[in-house]
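Service request form, structural biology core

Requester: graduate student, group of Dr. S.
Request type: structure prediction, single chain
Budget code: on file
Notes: please return the result as structure tokens.

Sequence provided:
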Amino acid sequence: MAARFPSLSALRAFESAARHLNFGRAGDELFVTHSAVSKQIRLLEEDLGVALFERRNRAVFLTEAGRRLLVTMSEVLRQIGDCCDEIRGGGSAPLVVSCEPTFTQRWLIPRLPQFNALHPDVEVLVLAAGGPVNFDRSHIDLALRRSDFSWSPELFMETVVEERVGPVCAPRLLVSGSDDILSLPRIHSATRRDAWSRYIADSRIGGLNPPGSQVFEHFYLSIEAAIAGLGAAIGPEPLVADAVESGQLVAPRGFSSNGYSYILLSRLPFEGDARRRNFLSWLRRQFAP
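Core staff response, request fulfilled:
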């Protein structure tokens, strides 16, 4: 006996309302009224025999059943979208990855050819962006981020690698001793202005008065300034590893954990999509000892 399928209109109203957690915004998206969305969801809940939303203080939250249905519907809609792209002749939809600009420039792009060689059937589209991410508005599949902000509990998160940092500078600036680097002018980034103070506090270093400092707007500029010999910068190991290996930078004090990690965020489970799983596995292998 075939399973009784719920109303497609009700499912569409549910998916929009669950994604926005707001019946009004769902109505705007579907060009119907708030009450029409509410009625469709009520009919769907009656059909399924379970509550899909909790309604508290004029706000709505997904129940466990609602979360399960949203995950499944999101994956099904993605597959439908991919299929439509193929029918139109555009081939499989690309895997859209949002990545922090400095990480994109100094780490990901130089290594993407390796991923492409391993997975020639997966087209990766990289968007440079940092901080909190809106998967719906940005139309992305994955977000590679530093774990220095709060993200929605509805998202799926996997840790890629622990962040380790240390002071780096051009080799010609060091004349003797590993502590000389702490006496150099300090290079700061406006986006991580506390990097030096956190490193000094975590390392329990005191009594040092560097001769000056410079601030650069973006983090990748602070690394370029260190390579140019303007002073010492606090560099995350992944972002300066290639420059250290090539001899452009030195890290005489090494690298140590600072409590942050690089994480991969997804709106859909990694287990349900081979492309997401493969990209996550590849990232982790790159950082394996």
